[in-house]
Design brief:
Helices cover 42% and strands 18% of the residues. It has an 8-stranded mixed β-sheet with strand order 2-1-3-4-5-6-7-8, sandwiched between helices. Strand 1, helix 3 and strand 2 form a beta-alpha-beta unit.
Length: 747
């Protein structure tokens, strides 16, 4: 402990003079320093205090080392009387690790540093410990604070410098007292030991009050063309060179509109700042670099990489939240609650020639066919079973002796005692109708096919089953079939849509679909880092590539929708549902199919880690969200685009009408209304026409062809010569003999 107390003796003396700052050493009443610092710490009211004290090479007065331990004891005693917990470090590395651990758990950390800030500030920025949750208090001890040209306290570093212009008087300078991003210290408070102590409490102005008005500060905002969030017009690079803002070169872009452009203008008006659009590298949001290209301070590309390196202030444009991105940047309150989805082509119309087969689904047809096939055998069993059940044993009354007939009952009656004969008992049975099985099969087929047929049997069981068959064939099959067939003709059937990830995976495996995703987007990160079905889809996407080219990456969602609109019936695009919906509206929603919601995704304003004005920005965004302004802005952007599309459609119809009228004759001009009717003819209910019945005509033609073929064969058989008929009969004799033998055995 003596080692730490010896190092903390610097509390009694100033750190020294750097570049003109005067050094004042007071050998008496040095306890005033500990009293003042304890009151300054009390003005902050921290949860705990971290102290860093290192031996200084600038203080060589041996008289100063004599009382360091006593004065340090006095400062710690006064600090603990105020119920503050403190931790003391004499190792810079351990001190920085302690700050990093607090930032990982998002705890506010106040540090008192009794050391020259030159080398320490560089290490703080290098390890990204400059954060709005960390406050570094430097006890300077000189009359004047350090010059801005000597030491730069730039954002997001929060720094307090305590000076000592005279005994018992201390001044507190703060680098974030003004919303400008400059390393300018400003006097915000002071302590006078002879009067009332601190001038005001709390010690420092709050960030909400400082950053409520940016006083015209200029921000750099990366942007790229990503409708409906930003509509960007790129200029020729050779015509206009890069500009310089705060020592950073950038290329200014022309943004003509977009939802986030309107949002940024509203924020600028409310918080009083200006902004300059700069081009995002690669015109993408940004993704993680590979291990070979990754630097210690720059692990992302694109607009996120500019934020991470401090070359931009914030980033908008449907920037999705993810765990990997939160390690490099921070996000505000969400500006869009969206969901993931994918878009494919609209379900195509199925061939009308097969419409007569579609009223029942594929899994119903087998059961229907089996029902028709088994109806005949069941009907045969119902009729044949009574003939089998009614076979009863009866005694034979007549004996045959050649041509003589002897009635045994009469002989038994006249000679009851002399004749004791045992009579044979046989089974009496009624004759079953000829060819009953074939008749039952044919009866069931004619009944289900709605052909005329007579009652086959008069038994009540057979009549009941006939009524059941007739009701099933008439009211169940025929009426349902007719209703669904009429519906199919009125609104032509289409192929089943691809709405889920499982359906998309099956289409990629079975039908060769290809899935596209925007490069360096949150959707791509979902595929790369996802589990289960996402990992399987990403493996399918990579398997279809050749020569290590990532052909499934596209520049934007709009480019993917363009691929589908150009006839890509085997393509799908993954992205945000709102972005997909908006781009689909541009090309016509009737040509695309939007899937179900796959997962929830949020978009927000991206800022640098430790951004000091994040709380102020969140307050404004939450007010806009609660007031419904964000939703209204999105709806207004959709409405604006809809009006533009309606004008373009009208112009397109007019040009098409003029073109067709120029090619046609004077009496055969096609009006604009007729053209529009033809274009939207596939989307409205149409009356029944003969072209829709081509499937029925095809079936009728096949049946007629089969009947004609059999008739021709019969005519050819009748015209055969007698010798050919005899030859035919000769070949039939063995078959007839076998039939007779089989019939004899059955008897």
């Amino acid at each position: 402990m003596n080692k730490y107390l010896a190092a903390l003796g610097l509390l009694l003396y100033p750190l020294g003079s750097l570049h003109g700052a005067s050094l004042i050493i007071h050998s008496c009443n040095e306890s005033d320093v500990s009293i003042a610092l304890s009151q300054i710490i009390n003005g902050l009211r921290p949860l705990f205090l971290t102290i860093l004290a290192l031996p200084s090479s600038t203080l060589t007065d041996e008289s100063c080392w004599k009382y360091r331990g006593n004065y340090m004891d006095d400062f710690l005693q006064r600090l603990h009387r105020l119920y503050y917990v403190s931790v003391i470090f004499s190792d810079t590395e351990l001190f920085l690790q302690h700050i990093d651990a607090n930032l990982q758990t998002e705890n506010e950390c106040v540090s008192l540093i009794l050391y020259e800030p030159n080398e320490l500030l560089d290490r703080i920025h290098e390890r990204r410990l400059a954060h709005r949750l960390s406050l570094f208090i430097f006890y300077w001890g000189a009359r004047l604070p350090p010059r801005a040209s000597t030491i730069s306290f730039r954002e997001p570093l929060r720094t307090v410098v305590v000076t000592r212009p005279r005994p018992k008087a201390f001044r507190i300078y703060y680098n974030q007292a003004r919303p400008h991003n400059v390393s300018q210290l400003q006097l915000v408070n002071w302590y006078d030991g002879d009067n009332l102590g601190l001038q005001r409490s709390p010690l420092l102005p709050t960030a909400a009050s400082v950053y409520a008005n940016f006083e015209g500060r200029v921000f750099r905002v990366p942007v790229f063309h990503s409708p409906p969030w930003f509509w960007v017009i790129y200029s020729n690079e050779e015509d206009e060179g890069p500009k310089v803002l705060d020592g950073t070169e950038y290329k200014e872009l022309l943004v003509t509109g977009g939802r986030d452009h309107r949002l940024l203008m509203l924020l600028a008006q409310h918080m009083n700042f200006r902004f300059k659009y700069i081009e995002a590298p690669g015109r993408t949001q940004g993704s993680m670099r590979s291990d070979d290209d990754r630097d210690s301070n720059d692990s992302f590309t694109g607009g996120i990489g500019l934020l991470q390196s401090g070359q931009a202030d914030f980033f908008l444009g449907d920037v999705g939240l993810s765990w990997e991105r939160r390690k490099a940047i921070e996000f505000s309150f969400f500006t869009l609650a969206d969901s993931g989805a994918f878009a494919t082509h609209a379900p195509r119309r199925l061939n009308e020639a097969l419409a007569i087969m579609r009223p029942f689904k594929q899994d119903i047809w087998p059961y229907l066919i089996l029902t028709v096939l088994f109806s005949g055998p069941i009907f045969y069993g119902i009729i044949a079973m009574p003939y089998i059940w009614r076979r009863r044993p009866t005694s034979l009354d007549i004996e045959h002796f050649g041509e003589m007939y002897i009635y045994m009952d009469y002989i038994k009656e006249i000679t009851p005692c002399l004749l004791n004969a045992k009579h044979r008992r046989v089974l009496s049975e009624k004759q079953m109708p000829n060819q009953l099985f074939e008749k039952c099969i044919w009866f069931a087929l004619r009944l289900f096919l709605k052909q005329s047929c007579h009652e086959l049997y008069h038994g009540y069981r057979a009549k009941f089953l006939t009524i059941v068959y007739w009701i099933a064939a008439t009211y169940v099959l025929a009426d349902v079939y007719s209703a669904q067939l009429t519906s199919q003709f009125a609104r032509p059937a289409r192929e089943p849509p691809i709405n889920t990830l499982q359906n998309l995976q099956a289409a990629m495996v079975r039908d060769g679909y290809r899935l596209y995703v925007e490069k360096e987007s949150s959707s791509l990160e979902m595929l790369e880092n996802g589990t289960e079905i996402f990992r399987q889809l990403y493996a399918l996407m990579q398997r279809e590539q050749h020569d290590d080219r990532l052909d499934f990456l596209i520049d934007s969602v709009e480019a993917g929708i363009q691929l589908i609109a150009d006839g890509g019936e085997d393509k799908a695009v993954l992205g945000g549902r709102e972005t997909l919906y908006f781009n689909i509206q541009q090309y016509g929603a009737k040509y695309f199919q939007l899937s179900q919601k796959l997962y929830t995704r949020y978009s927000a304003v991206a800022v640098q880690i430790g951004c000091p004005f994040l709380d102020s920005l969140n307050n404004v965004l939450m007010n806009l969200f609660e007031g419904g302004i964000l939703e209204k802005m999105t709806t207004a952007e959709y409405a604006t685009q809809s009006r533009k599309m309606s004008k373009e459609d009208a112009r397109q119809y007019k040009v098409l009408a003029v073109t067709k009228s120029g090619k046609a004759s004077g009496n055969g001009k096609i009006s604009e209304f007729q053209i529009q009717t033809q274009i939207h003819d596939s989307d409205v209910i149409r009356p029944l026409s003969l072209s829709m019945l081509q499937g029925a005509f095809i079936a009728l033609g096949v049946g007629g062809l089969a009947a004609g073929t059999f008739l021709l064969l019969e005519l050819l058989f009748c015209q055969l010569t007698l010798g050919q008929k005899c030859l035919w009969l000769r070949w039939r004799r063995p078959w007839i003999s076998l039939q007779r033998i089989g019939h004899f055995r059955t008897k």
